[in-house]
Protein 1
Amino acid sequence: MEKLIFINKQADLDAVVPTLAAFPMLSVDTETEGLDPHKHKVLLLQVGTPELQVIVDTRVVNPAPLQSLLEGPSPKILQNAKFDYTMIRGSFGIKMENLIDTMLLGDGR
């Protein structure tokens, strides 16, 4: 059964990062206030595993504890990775690598 955690306190994010770090692959998504990474910010940052989804309210919580996970070599799965990566880098300076974009995978036909 999947667990969902909404993070609006810094200590809660600090506490969940070791759990996320134990997984070999993470999913990542954003909700933003607009589409321009130079003008708009990420409002919610979601990082997840098959068992755990963490939604961070970045208006009140600094996502810095996630930086080593997002910049690390483990694969990150995103939908429209170019957009989410650009927004995450613009808002937080996090430079992710090893991204898998589900929008580009196709259906195998």
Protein 2
Amino acid sequence: LITTKTMYKKISWIVLDWKKLWRTINFPTANIFCEDENITDGTYKINIIVNWKKYSWVWAYLKEKKLFESHIFDFSDNIYWVNIEVYIIHKIRDNKKFSSFEELKNQILKDVESAKNTEILAMTFWTFDVFHEWHKHYLLEAKNFSDKLITIVATDKNVLKIKWILPKFSENERKNEVEKSWISDQVFVWDEENPMYFVEKFKPNVICLWYDQIWFSEKLETFLHEKNISSEIIRIESFKPEIYKSSILKNNNK
């Protein structure tokens, strides 16, 4: 069993025109409903996507009201009734009652500082042969669940072992294509001698696997348990597999 202090959820909802109480203490918030029973009361560090741009927020969840109240860093746009995507990536603290608005304001300042000083690291693993929108979606989703993304590219030998066929492009060519997308902060080619080398070296908070990525995942869970590394494993949903699948694109490019 892999235990972790972080939690990774994605929510999509419309920002509500709520009471605007937080504006009175100079912390305007965006509010959305949430009915996920697995999310507990608390204040969280999150990333959100607003009009295709990524921002960092501090967000308080009030389970009884099924309401998230959030404060975004350095943001003043009016986004009432705009649909946003929320990536919950780190719980800062449990909720508590405050005796005054001044005490609440001081706590929010601490929460903001905590969120800014907590870097969440994600890691991805894939072949990335014929780099396309399918791969970009995978990397972007992983990046949204983190502050920094490290990507590991399978070696030619890895691909031959798993798929019984060599990739169309070499490992260094595939690595260069991932780097050129400017999504991942660092890109490495897999270590043949020690497959778990980069996991042990960087100890990512979250490891993002593709929805049907089976090879390596079972070994990964065992390794994390043995090394007492508290990485959470999440699966990224499929993205237009009828169009953006490497085997289909390879056939089309023949």
Protein 3
Amino acid sequence: LARSLKRAWPEAAIDMLVFRGTEDALQGNPDIAQVLAFPRRPTLGETFAQIRSLWRKYPLALSPLPTDRARLYCWIAGRRRIGLLRAGAQDRFKGLLLNQWSWFDDLDTHTVAMGLRLAEMLGVAPCFEVVPPRMRPARLDGLLAPLADRPFAVLHVYPKFNYKMWPREAWIALASWLLTQGMGVAFT
């Protein structure tokens, strides 16, 4: 999503709001000006500080997650707000926090494609290019040291949702095949 927006608006400063502890996934991304990392369970004082720091700060705020918290932060931060809603009467009411919205489909549509729907709603061509973190933390360097700088594949064998989980035998077969191709294998 950030790459799509940056391609459409090269002069725009794109900030991302994430939970503290997840910001490394965006580290060094040239499309992102600033990563704001907030605690997952803020104290009352932290909550007020967050609201104060974000209040209508942005001309446009996007909520690519269909959660109450994401929509609320979107409403707080943006003068124009676009996001995703889950199907149902309850979420339709929550859509009042957004100026424009689309239904979230987590059964037949990949999460990345759902997020790119927001770009399409803005008239921005979706870009499917993945931008990995640019700089690796020292801990990650230590974990990857056994691969000895050879090419490797990263296998994320435990997705967030069980329905997306691939059978163990399939992961073993894929990892075995990668090894026969001379690739290293890293698991997340």
